[in-house]
Amino acid sequence: MRIISFAAIRNYAQKHADADVPLRDWYKKTEKADWSCLADIKQTFNSVDYVGNDRFVFNIKGNDYRLVAMILFAAKKVFIRWIGTHKEYDNKDCSNA
């Protein structure tokens, strides 16, 4: 999958150092993946949730953080739309992130 863009991870990790390694791990696994549906994603990340509007929520670092990505399966592209803490996520409508 092609991820747009790593800068979101780098920028977030500068403020939240404990998220750096788990976010990089997510990036590496996602980059190597060849997903065509939710079931494919679940084989890589079993806790992923679909929240509508092509958005998927990934638990990062044991659910301390959340990453919302828009995934376009046909184009094989993953757009990082939002990264935040679990608490921040609970107060956000991520279907439009």
Task: Give a quick precis of the structure.
With 97 residues, this protein is α+β, with helices and mostly antiparallel strands.
Beta-strand portion reads: 25-35%
| Uncertain stretches of 5 or more adjacent residues | none
Cα(first) to Cα(last) distance is: 20 Å
Mean pLDDT: 93
Which outline best applies?
A: globular
Query: What is the helix/strand order?
Result: EHHHEEEEH
Q: Remind me, CATH topology? A: YaeB-like fold
Number of strands: 5
Fraction of residues in H or I helices: 25-40%
What does the largest sheet look like? 5 strands, mixed
Number of helices: 4
**What is the CATH class?**
Alpha Beta
Radius of gyration: 12 Å
Structural class: alpha+beta
The total domain count is: 1
Strand order of the largest sheet: 1-5-4-3-2
Give the name of the CATH architecture: 2-Layer Sandwich
Task: Using brief descriptors, characterize the structure shown.
97 residues; alpha+beta; YaeB-like fold; 5-stranded mixed β-sheet; globular; Type II toxin-antitoxin system HigB family toxin; endonuclease activity; RNA binding; Toxin_HigB
Outline the structure in words:
By secondary structure, this protein is of the alpha+beta class. The protein has one domain: YaeB-like fold (2-Layer Sandwich), CATH 3.30.2310. 36% of the residues lie in helices and 31% in strands. It contains four helices and five strands, in the order βαααββββα. It has helices at residues 6-15, 20-32, 38-44, 86-90, and strands at 2-4, 49-52, 55-60, 65-72, 77-85. It has a five-stranded mixed sheet with strand order 1-5-4-3-2. The chain is globular and about 35 Å long.
